[in-house]
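Data deposition worksheet. Section B asks for the primary sequence of the deposited chain exactly as it was used as input, without tags or linkers unless they were present during the calculation. Section C holds the resulting structure in token form. Section D is free text for depositor observations; keep each observation to a single sentence. Incomplete worksheets are returned to the depositor.
Section A, Depositor: J.P.
Section B:
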Amino acid sequence: MFERITFSSDVMGGRACVRGMRITVSLVLSLLANRMTVAEILEAYPYLESEDILACLEYAAYLASEEVYSLAETAA
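Section C:
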């Protein structure tokens, strides 16, 4: 589902990374949250691609879409 987002216990302690590199999803999201543009990120990290940044946003959106169910609903 997220081909550009990888997990490996050998890289950054198993945190979500971009294509196996030592660039975490949380770093990319933090840069965006601090108003860095995609162009600025790509300039600072030339081994990243714009599709990597989009993949980080898609992964974050996926994680944020979780639903909460009450135990009463699941028991019925």
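Section D:
The chain is about 45% helix and 5% strand.
The first strand starts at residue 5 and ends at 6.
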